DNA sequence: GCTATGTATATCGCGCGCGATACAATCGCA
DNA sequence: TGCGATTGTATCGCGCGCGATATACATAGC
């Protein structure tokens, strides 16, 4: 029988995900501020550092951020001198994103943040990987992927 | 030695948390739309359903949402007829939030969403609780709590 | 009582996050 | 070749999320 009282948000997986995500954002902020990056901007810089010259749509797919969110975000990063936006010659609808030299420096500095955060929290690689796998499985489930058990 | 290439966001715990959180939001949206609630509004309604008459600050603490986010959110819920805002008689700085009858109905309807979502995804209570505990520990770490192993 | 300090809530500004929409460039196909 | 459908990106509107700030109320100390 259904209990007479509603569940506390604390008892819900979705709330704990929501709260942990915001907690991560708050914890990263003091480390990202010196770089002049927001958290989603940090993700974009890392993705570009990993593979430069991606189109807007590729970034959108990889990060799960809609292009209508990315467009203004990329404009702000361009205005900050971190990247260039370059129309494709062969398909003028597409826009390729390239890091500037300053952007490359920023990306390398950004790379260290997760490491130092993990170290500061005392989280081992194994713990992180384990949680990460759980979250990835959950995300695939939510995204409607028909459960690809292995990756 | 540090690898010559930057890490993919995919390999980061923080990104997977970020992405899973947004995925949850997107998955909940079609279920919340009929109730006229956003996701944070859903959390507020559940919290009030669990304990009515909370002050703004209590909601803020419990949900980890700043009062500057809650104030306009509560005004929207009041405008939607889901709750009343009532100044305390004894301390006129405080505002207590009470669900309206319509709000109580909404809260009960909202309560079913997590259950049905879990069922649709094939997630058992044990799996949810296990992930939940991991996320809670992570959140406590990030919030600077000096690691209270048990709760 | 009267000022200083602290507390509870609210307002403002800016950057997401995303649905809806716009628009140009490309593609498909008769 | 031409024209409708599709694709890639951008714009708009609204609701968070949160730092900074405001404001009213309460409390403490004198």
UniProtKB/TrEMBL annotation, chains A, B:
<feature type="domain" description="HTH marR-type">
    <location>
        <begin position="10"/>
        <end position="140"/>
    </location>
</feature>
<dbReference type="InterPro" id="IPR036388">
    <property type="entry name" value="WH-like_DNA-bd_sf"/>
</dbReference>
<dbReference type="GO" id="GO:0003700">
    <property type="term" value="F:DNA-binding transcription factor activity"/>
</dbReference>
<keyword id="KW-0805">Transcription regulation</keyword>
<dbReference type="GO" id="GO:0006950">
    <property type="term" value="P:response to stress"/>
</dbReference>
<keyword id="KW-0238">DNA-binding</keyword>
<dbReference type="InterPro" id="IPR000835">
    <property type="entry name" value="HTH_MarR-typ"/>
</dbReference>
<dbReference type="InterPro" id="IPR036390">
    <property type="entry name" value="WH_DNA-bd_sf"/>
</dbReference>
<dbReference type="GO" id="GO:0003677">
    <property type="term" value="F:DNA binding"/>
</dbReference>
<dbReference type="InterPro" id="IPR055166">
    <property type="entry name" value="Transc_reg_Sar_Rot_HTH"/>
</dbReference>
<dbReference type="InterPro" id="IPR039422">
    <property type="entry name" value="MarR/SlyA-like"/>
</dbReference>
<keyword id="KW-0963">Cytoplasm</keyword>
<dbReference type="Pfam" id="PF22381">
    <property type="entry name" value="Staph_reg_Sar_Rot"/>
</dbReference>
<dbReference type="GO" id="GO:0005737">
    <property type="term" value="C:cytoplasm"/>
</dbReference>
<protein>
    <submittedName>
        <fullName>MarR family transcriptional regulator</fullName>
    </submittedName>
</protein>
<keyword id="KW-0804">Transcription</keyword>
């Amino acid at each position: 029988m259904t209990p007479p009282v509603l569940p506390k948000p604390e008892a819900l997986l979705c709330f704990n995900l929501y709260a942990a995500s915001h907690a991560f954002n708050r914890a990263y902020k003091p480390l990202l501020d010196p770089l002049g990056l927001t958290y989603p901007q940090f993700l974009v810089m890392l993705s570009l550092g990993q593979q430069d010259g991606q189109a807007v749509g590729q970034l959108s797919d990889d990060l799960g951020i809609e292009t209508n969110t990315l467009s203004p975000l990329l404009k702000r990063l361009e205005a900050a001198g971190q990247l260039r936006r370059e129309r494709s010659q062969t398909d003028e609808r597409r826009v390729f994103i390239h890091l500037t030299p300053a952007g490359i420096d920023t990306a390398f500095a950004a790379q260290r943040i997760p490491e130092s955060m993990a170290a500061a929290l005392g989280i081992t690689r194994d713990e992180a990987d384990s949680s990460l796998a759980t979250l990835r499985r959950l995300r695939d489930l939510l995204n409607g992927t028909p459960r690809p058990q292995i990756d």
